[in-house]
């Protein structure tokens, strides 16, 4: 394509940062911005037509260090691929994305760590009241950390009983119904708040800013003696218990906001019941008179 000879990688990255990335989540913006600086330094003066898969793969290899895992190296490639993908489909500056020809490095299987019921009770007993409510909402909704920490009262529909999570990883807001317990927690916080803050969990120092539970969370984990556990594992805990309760993978995917149900299949092993039911149906069909 003739356009590929006219535009540089630096120009393409800048266009992506200005026009495409702002629609992504804040965490994605921060991560991609940092990673794309590497690609700007490495290939900024190249014309798009001069890029080739071998050089891009070698540039990824140059990032290898003791502090960067294969997963991190793959994320660097993903960020550059996102830019070049837009150059193909949105900007119409390239015919094909050279990153598509590069195989991803092997990564360890997805990590699933969830709380046992005993661990859950111990952890909650060591949380201060605000953290206790935040952890409970995370467990009861499967929401991500920033979705809980930055939750605002104007994102909650008390009449229809649903929550809209606006700060999602995908950048696309989603809504989930409120259970009676979730409704109770948030309604209580609204009363206790006396409408002084727009946030469900306001900062104790600056009331119209969201709280950061980083220090309180680490303290609670240490006091409860719970190891190898991150805030994101509360989401794993929620998903795991939904699956063990017999809730379908499709429904769990909808609750969690997974864009692809394949992301939810990592929890499938926790639900042998759906396999048992399938084999019972097969047996009945085979031996039906």
Number of helices: 12
Are there runs of 5+ residues with pLDDT below 50, and where? none
State the end-to-end distance: 65 Å
How big a fraction of the residues is strand?
A: under 5%
Q: Would you count the extended β strands for me?
A: 3
* Rg, Å, rounded: 23 Å
The spatial strand order of the largest sheet comes to 1-2-3
Q: What's the helix-strand series?
A: HHHHHHHEEEHHHHH
What gross morphology would you assign? globular
State the major sheet: 3 strands, antiparallel
Structural classification: mainly alpha
What is this structure, in a nutshell?
By secondary structure, the chain is mostly helical. The protein contains twelve helices and three strands, in the order αααααααβββααααα.
Model description:
The structure is a single chain. The longest helix has 20 residues, at 70-89. The mean pLDDT is 87. Helix 5 crosses helix 9. The protein has helices spanning 9-19, 26-43, 53-61, 70-89, 117-125, 129-141, 145-149, 180-193, 214-224, 232-244, 249-256, 272-286, and strands spanning 156-157, 162-165, 174-177. It is built from twelve helices and three strands; from the N terminus they run αααααααβββααααα. By secondary structure, the chain is mainly α. It has a three-stranded antiparallel beta sheet, with no helix packed on it.
Describe the protein's topology.
Layout: H1 9-19, H2 26-43, H3 53-61, H4 70-89, H5 117-125, H6 129-141, H7 145-149, E1 156-157, E2 162-165, E3 174-177, H8 180-193, H9 214-224, H10 232-244, H11 249-256, H12 272-286
Antiparallel strand pairs: 1-2, 2-3
Helix pairs in contact: 1-2, 2-4, 3-4, 5-9, 6-8, 6-10
């Amino acid at each position: 394509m003739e356009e590929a000879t006219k535009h540089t990688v630096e120009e393409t990255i800048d266009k992506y940062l200005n026009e495409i990335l702002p629609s992504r989540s804040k965490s994605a913006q921060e991560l991609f911005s940092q990673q794309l600086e590497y690609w700007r330094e490495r290939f900024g003066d190249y014309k798009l037509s001069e890029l080739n898969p071998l050089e891009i793969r070698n540039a990824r290899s140059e990032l290898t260090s003791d502090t960067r895992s294969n997963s991190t190296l793959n994320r660097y490639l993903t960020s550059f691929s996102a830019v070049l993908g837009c150059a193909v489909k949105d900007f119409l500056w390239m015919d094909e994305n050279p990153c598509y020809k590069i195989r991803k490095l092997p990564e360890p299987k997805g990590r699933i760590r969830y709380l046992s019921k005993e661990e859950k009770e111990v952890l909650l007993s060591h949380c201060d009241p605000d953290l206790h409510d935040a952890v409970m909402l995370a467990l009861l909704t499967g929401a991500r950390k920033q979705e809980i920490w930055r939750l605002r009262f104007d994102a909650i529909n008390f009449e229809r009983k649903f929550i809209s999570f606006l700060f999602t990883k995908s950048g696309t807001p989603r809504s989930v119904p409120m259970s009676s317990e979730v409704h109770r927690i948030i309604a209580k916080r609204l009363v206790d708040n006396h409408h002084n803050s727009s946030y469900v969990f306001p900062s104790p120092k600056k009331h119209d800013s969201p709280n950061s539970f980083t220090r309180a969370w680490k303290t609670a984990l240490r006091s409860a003696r719970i190891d190898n556990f991150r805030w994101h594992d509360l989401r794993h805990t929620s998903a795991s218990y939904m699956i063990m309760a017999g809730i379908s993978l499709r429904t769990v995917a909808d609750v969690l906001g997974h864009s692809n149900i394949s992301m939810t299949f990592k929890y499938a092993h926790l639900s042998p019941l759906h396999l048992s039911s399938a084999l019972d149906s097969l047996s009945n069909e085979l031996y039906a008179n």
